[in-house]
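Weekly structure sync, notes
Attendees: PL (lead), two postdocs, one rotation student
Agenda item 3: pending single-chain targets
PL asked that the sequence for the first pending target be pasted directly into the notes so everyone works from the same version. It is reproduced below exactly as submitted, 195 residues in total.
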Amino acid sequence: MSKVYTRTGDLGTTAIHGGARVDKDDPRIEANGTLDELNCALGLVRSLLETEHPWQEDLREIQLELMAVMSLVATPSTLRDHNPNSLSPTLVGHLEECMDRMNAEINEREGYFILPGGTPLAAHLHQARVVARRAERRLVTLHHIDPVPAQILVLINRLSDLLFVMARYEVWQKQLQEDRWRAFAYKRKLKGKEV
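Predicted structure, written out during the meeting:
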């Protein structure tokens, strides 16, 4: 690109895949903007990790996948078959395996609402988690207007879960005490306690 600015968006519109122009606050752009914000949050998390940290490659793969997700979200469902980008069929399963391994090490049997923090890395993981949840909400809004591939909805939901577990794992590894609020209500009901 010889110039960053194009002036084509000066009046508040932007192009989507296929050439149509929509308002910059269109639900499709809101969803993609939040996914972009999520990708930046993951980049910040990676910048806090050592180069050889075992999470580096996984987070990089997630960032690459998010680029494909954004391309597909920018494409109306009627044109999606013409978009050459595709999603990994194994990534969600891999994220679940990662969570299962970390949870097995933490070995916490009861779930708690946790105050975000603990270490700078854990705090940034929580920040990325809430951006993922916001992206999920924006995608659901778009889905009501124009169907979003189910695989995308599952991926972003699972990614938020992963970031939560990573934050807990980071605090556990540093042998710090989590700042807990209280146990999840459904867990207390199962134990017969008052909610």
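Discussion points:
- The two ends are 58 Å apart (CA to CA).
- The chain has six helices and four strands.
Action: rotation student to compare against the earlier draft before next sync.
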